[in-house]
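tmp note - 2-oxoglutarate dehydrogenase E1 component
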Amino acid sequence: MSNNVYSAGSPWSAFSGPNLGYVLEQYDLYLQSPEEVDAELVALFQAYGAPQVEGVDAAVATTGAAQGDYKKVLAAVKLAEAIRTKGHLAADLYPLKDHKLHTALIDESAFGLSAADLAEIPATVFFKEVPAGVKNGKEAIDYLKSVYTDKIAFEYSQVSNEEEFAWIQSQIESGAIKATLSNEEKKALLERLTRVENFEKFIHKTFVGQKRFSGEGLDTQIVLLDEILKVVEKENLENVRIGMAHRGRLNVLTHILNKPYDMMFSDFAHVSNDLFFPEDGRLEITKGWTGDVKYHMGASYTRESGMNVKLAYNPSHLEVVAPVVLGTTRAAQDDTTKAGAVEFNPNKALGILIHGDAAFPGQGIVTETLNFAKTEGFTTGGTIHIIANNMIGFTTELYDSRSSVYSSDPAKGYEVPVIHVNADEPEAVAQVGRFAAAYRQKFGKDILIDLIGYRRYGHNETDDPTVTNPETYKLVSKHDPIRVLYGTKLAEAGLVSMEDVKALDEKVYAEMQAAYDHVKEMAEKDEHKHLEMPEEVKVSFPEIETAVEIERLEKINEELLQFADGFQPQNKLAKILEKRREAFASEKIDWGHAETLAFATIIQDGHPVRFTGQDAQRGTFSQRHLVLHDKNNGSLFTPLHHISGANASFTVHNSPLTEAGVVGFEYGYNLENPNVLSIWEAQFGDFANMAQVMFDNFISAARSKWGQKSGLVMLLPHGYEGQGPEHSSSRMERFLQLSAENNWFVANCSNAGNYYHLLRRQAGMLGTEGMRPLVVVSPKSLLRHPLAAASSEQLAEGKFQEVIEQPTTGNTPKAVEKILLASGKVTIDLADRVKDGEGFDHLHIVRVEQLYPFPAEQVKEIISRFPNAKEIVWVQEEPKNQGAWNYMLEHLYELSEGKKVRYVGRPAMSSTSEGDGDAHKAAQAALVAEAVGK
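out:
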């Protein structure tokens, strides 16, 4: 089957006699000189291959079409193809009936055919298995139109896998996708829609003017989620992770996560919702001390089957939650409890992402997330995507918001099948939900549902949409809600009466009124307690034992140099690795070596390690080599999978060239499994710019907003080596600006041993109340610098030092007139300049290894030892308006006690550094000379 995929049948059965002979001749010519064959026949040969002569039915041989013009058969095949591939453009998908349907594209006349022509063609031309009741080509075409242009429409020609394609087509054309709902299921649908509508209606009337970002017009979104969950629950999935923006979120929280009505109404009434928590313990909600608006909140609910469903907390930045949710999903699928590689089981969890119709094609994070689908380290075995399509973005019409026919079109580039469905058709929506879940379970691939409806109110309930979208809202004002339409349909079918529909509506509304009355009663008991920061977070410097016995390290070091039988690393690399044996004994453990030893001890201690980033396995600067490649056959070997005594998994994945998506994914992974040391490394520190939304809205603030704990580690290569603006600065000032309330650690280490202890300290905090993220301004040139190397004794006996004093300065305290404070690479430049300290009695150099929380007491104690010091100088490589200076200034003034506080570094610049190598060297030499001078 080619990528042009036509139909499930074969056209050859329509040919016999002279026509068959002609086609066979043309096929022979096609094999020799395809340019001499009619283009229509070429297309047929490409789609179906050689004409099949055997098994031609005798009755077919006598049909007019078989004896007549073969072009009629070709035209009929093309018509069927058009219906299958373009029928969606003529489908009844739009509740407001405000879109032109392109029926001409699939009209017989457009292909030069008449009903009589089609009637003479066998139905077997169009189907491998002819549907019941279809007797000829005319009935076949009518049948295809009935399944491809109804309330559900399909786009799947982008799927290249033959089995997958055939399954989708069979489900559609056999009618399996439209399996009829039972009468009880239909009544249950009406009841569900009544609750969904009344929830929104009650809030609208009771809490006038309060924003809720109603989902009305897409009420069947709840039906869709219901059906998906039912299917995967029967498949014994343990976890479902859902991500969505704010529109319709409150209804999802209430009817999918089972947040009780009174608990939801209490949020609007400004009464503590703790008073209404269900006693069964199946609903879980976390809270921060600063809080967030109600339509950003999430929850976790465990259904009676034991399946856990979580709705992720999400800021207003719409689609940015998508990779976070996939990270939580993957973590729920990974077994990290055993040594070696992670055991991945996609049937342990499902991710569901609900997108906005303007956001899906508009925001690049969507494409970043779609690209994860088949990558080894980030696949989740298929995500169900739902576009909550209300046909408008804020106030923006389609012609301003995208360049494609559908908002779903970007997904087709990833061979994701797309199912469009009219949101006003609850039964069709239910059928699509079942189909999508079955597809995901069968093929382990993404699928997208485009739920097409409208938006009953404006962008929010205080917005008047008629100002910018008058024509649309004329239609909306005349359009009945979905519940009304479906209730009428069931009444007309005799399943219920209109009195029943009305009574159900009144009953559900009364139930919500009773819930709100309960809220008003409980308001008197509300103590309005303000949440406080947990005591564990108030601790700036947690005491974590990070020392490791020297014998244990020696054994690990040897095991890291043992390869599998027959494995041969590349010659140069083998020599580099072999030097690690000597380095361990000679106090020359470089950065990558220390890091690997840290990972080994951490997995022995029972904490899994997951490390991702662009080229993370080798290391951007060829410093790491966690995964080795056999020089003869390219096979892989990971030494850390073979460490004796390991009690947890080790994983390192090279990531896609995606920053925001990968950072969000790793953050989500760590949220779901807080025992994992999750690490993301930027290829260069400035690449973190592309993930700024994740730092701003999730990693730095999620604990205070939502009570969500993370221990994610972010490594940001930084340092001025003359590599130009983009490869010098990691923009550490942005992370320091976000630092408050002990929300994370920001470190800029100058020594491999200190980095080793920093990683171990971070691992030791995992899973505790005091855990928090770690930002490491990591080095480039220091990776192999002798002055940044560690000794085995330092690894075995030391701990992480927030402050390190230069041992060759400050040895004559009364002579010290200037105290230099600096961080990271520039401290090595200073150390290299002063060497043994001779001639530099006038100064003392202090390395601030942890910038936030600032180690004020330690620095204060150091300054107090130099009574004659006249000035405290902050030295940095970065321009004055960047780096740590503005952050440090306040701290240094508080510690100065009248001493002069001064800056040494590059002047304020709009760029982060010089672009010319010679200019860089001159600037660097000048700032070092100024810093150490008298």
